Amino acid sequence: MKPTAFDRVLMAAAIVLAILWMLPLLWVFALSLKSNAVLMERTDAIFTTPFTLRNYADILANSAVFRWVLNSCVVAGVQTLLVLLLSSLAGYGFARCEFRGKRVVFALVLAGLAVPEPAVVIPLHRFFAELGLHNSYAGLILPRLAAPFGVFLMTQFFKALPRELEEAALMDNASRWTIFWRVILPLTLPAQATLGIFSFLAAWNDYLWPLISATRPEMYTLTLGLASTQTNFAQSEGLGFLMAQAVFAALPVLVLYAFFQRHIVAAVSGGRPA
User: Fold this and answer.
1) Domain ranges, residue 92
2) Residues 6 or more apart from 183 whose CB is under 8 A from it?
3) Fewer beta carbons within 10 angstroms: which end of the chain, N or C?
4) Domain for residue 201, yes or no?
5) How far is CA 60 from the centre of its chain?
6) pTM
């Protein structure tokens, strides 16, 4: 089918918006390739040579950086997997199982969406301090496993699936767990991908809770570790180094997107990867 004039206008508008969206990213990347001394002398220095990788070398010179990357990978990966598992189990229970107080419990779960994070920081800190879980992977992961949005998303997705699938499996004497694991769960891959993307990004970029729970440098996540290397005058005297830190922190997410691009697009569009 030949594209119409309206289709061309939409495509042109999409290209312009994409370029505008990319400009801040390109600006940050260009600043990260300039020395701090040059940036202090000229505001238009990003458009001229020379370029340097010194800012990235300074980041890698800190031997703790690779430990911070490992911590972020462990925390974000395990947290994402557990959020997917718990949200799927809870969502299936709310969508398919009947029990006393179901509506009240579901309302309480949704009420968690309205609770601001700073309101629970102090109770969480005291609770994990008494358990001795600060400066540990468990202390960094467990508080983020309560995912009301994930439970709501999976509940609505399970409700949209036809009950005839489960009834047919029950007639074949399949257990409830077998039905969930082998019949229903594979059909929720689009919702799983969507929730997994949001959960991983939230865990990777999390700063507030690691700042509270991780007080030892060896337990810092990447965002917290890079922030700890900044000076009080980072924005004026170390702008190039600051931008290099931003690029370095975002690089693993960009690599992840490159490998799972088809799944991410399918998740956002509500379909299946081609």
Assistant:
1) 63-229
2) 165, 166, 169, 174
3) N
4) yes
5) 24
6) 0.81
